[in-house]
Amino acid sequence: MPMGQYSWIGGKRMKLKKAEAPHLRQTERVAYMSLDLLIALVPLCIFSSIYYGLRPVLLVLTGLVTAVVCELLGSLVMRRRPTVADGNAAVIGGLVGAMMSPITPYWVPAVAAAFAILVVKMPFGGTGRHVFHPAAAALALCAVCFPTRVFTYPDPGLNVPIPLGDTAGVITALSPAEQLNSGAQISYHWITLLQGNFAGPIGATAIAVQLACMLYLFARHTASPLIVLPYLLTCAAGAALFPRTSGGVGNSVLMELCSGMLLFSGIYLLTDTVTAPRYWLGRVVYGILAGVLVMTMRHFGRSDQFPCTAFFAVLLVNALAPVIDRWCWRLVYTLRRRLQERMERRAVQ
Amino acid sequence: MPVHTNRGIRLPQNKEPAASRDVARLSRVERVTLPLSYGTEEIRPVCGLYETVMRGSPLTKPESQDELPLASSVTGVFSGTRVISHPLYGELDCAVIDVLAVEGDEEGKPANLDKLGPDKLLKIARDAGIIDELDGIPLHTKLSQWREEGCDFLVADGTQPEPYASSAWAVLNLSAERVQDGLKLAASCVGASGYHTAVFLSPERRRPLAQRLGEHRLFQVPNRYPVTQYARRYRTPLGKKRADALPMSARVCRIGVQACLALYRAAAYGKPHCGAVVTVAGDAVATPQNLYVPFGTPVQNLLDHCGLSQEPAYLILGDMMTGRAAESAELPVLPGMTCILALKVRPVTLTPTVCIGCGRCAKVCHAGLLPSEIVRRLENMHYERLAGLHPEDCDGCGACSYVCPSGREVALRVTEAAHAHGTIFLDWGEEDET
User: Lesser CB count within 10 Å: N end or C end of chain A?
Assistant: First the structure.
């Protein structure tokens, strides 16, 4: 029998293929992680549509569809294989839409999503290679260019569906973030906060729903608790140490955590795998740093112009993520090596 | 649901039906191919062409004491040499022996094992040509090294945490007591204060085994791949101190159960290490089972014995996670192989896409590395910055590739980086196209 590429089965040659170990893979793939994030956006849209009618859903869809179309266009222009199937563009578009006010004109999320994909994501190399979170960058653009359209929120207490077209007559209200910034003494009942019955962005009001989505993402290993929990704890510590409103430490912590986009950014923007560190200690440090930045901006930032600052903090820590990751890894690696050496020395003695 | 845990993964177990079947012997072996040396040096066989060699008689005469005399695994006629390319060992000079008889295991009275000193045991392990199936290293080399460097606890590793292999269980089921006796000999040789057998079994299988060996002589490893904890250790200062636990500084060494058995048989009956129990499984195999085969048997004979239900596309020497794909079924079974898979399809094949930085590879890495960063530097040709990430710590368990949602060959790249040693290398393709 000849030695070589072929072997025999029942007198017939069989052809064997090359392959590299491991020959077994898990079924989880990138598209499932994007799908998890989209699933986690759905309850937020539903809750928002209870207060404001169909308009928030349409805004989110506008962002989502624009992002997907821009991704397709970008792939065509750059002559790359379209990467729409991994769902990353849809998630970015959905997130951009969810951070808008329910009375934002439809062109704003469209412009923001196009900016996110065509300026922040694609030129850096597309999925997996962008340095800054595209949705956070898009919101930063909106905050700088058209703050009144993004940060003017309707009053959910009136409970009238917002007209799908012109929103000129809608009664607006100050969001808790703006009230905190203006130095007013505010206090919402915790049930109101959990229900999201206060003025704010589409996805960032219903606290209970956001927390439930957070648990879902934790359970699916799509978002890392090692980022979110240190971030929230740092923010809470900042709110407790330097309160901006009366009513005790508890009220201050509750108001700071539930106002603006603090919680939403922590769950959906900070945990984006591409821009966050990979190592566990890096993630913890990243979360803490983001929390410190958010609270610092709330205290010392231009809060009269930008009531929400969490996405600026996200962009800043995004830039530091690779360095944090490597330093933290090296620290743990060196410490573990030293410990092992000490153990070995003890064993020899 | 996600299957990754900190520092490891949970693998599906497909050990049935091979694990439940009795160990069979090959009915027909015509020719065996045995390596003359595992090293690079050229060694001439001691027997002449068409001379009859007996089972256990040496084929080579090594010049140094460290090398293993490689013995014939069958009785047959020496009919020449050839060079083969083996996925596990690389290029090997081999002797080809036409088989006259694969002898059975008629055993006489066991010798007295109490008076065997460490040096005598090392000599027995060397003369019997015992090679540990865990890593393909000669047993006497491992034992003498541990004897010099110190070994606190010796473990017979019968865990086989990968999906298909059940040969260690088959060996333990047949002769657990002998494995333990062999382990005891090895422990006395290296001066270990304790020993036990580590397994990864269901409670129904573990209980009878624990009764045979003694409760404290059997250790169930945690359900995690790769296995890193072969003995119970207490954690200071938070963990509870248990009487049977080892301190964190204790050095635990391990040898394979088949090597333990071979050591016992060599010491008690003077038998050479001539064969191994190998699991033959996979979706293309009609009757998955454990087979006892003499070393040098072509893999084709094993597949013929078990039958193929369909034409396999992949032939894997080893198990799903670490096995190497072979392109020929003519390759011989050599020490270090405990599982052979014939697969029609690889269970999950993803099209590789870019890394999205999910960090799962770093989470499951039991060596505490940053695989995604190593791969990034390798792909961006930052070879000089690879050394700082210590890719040489990787043992190639493949957990990072397993969990990668982008379907990338992470483990392969990390191994490449480990071999790069900071030098620039270029892959010019596999073969010349002309």
Answer: C
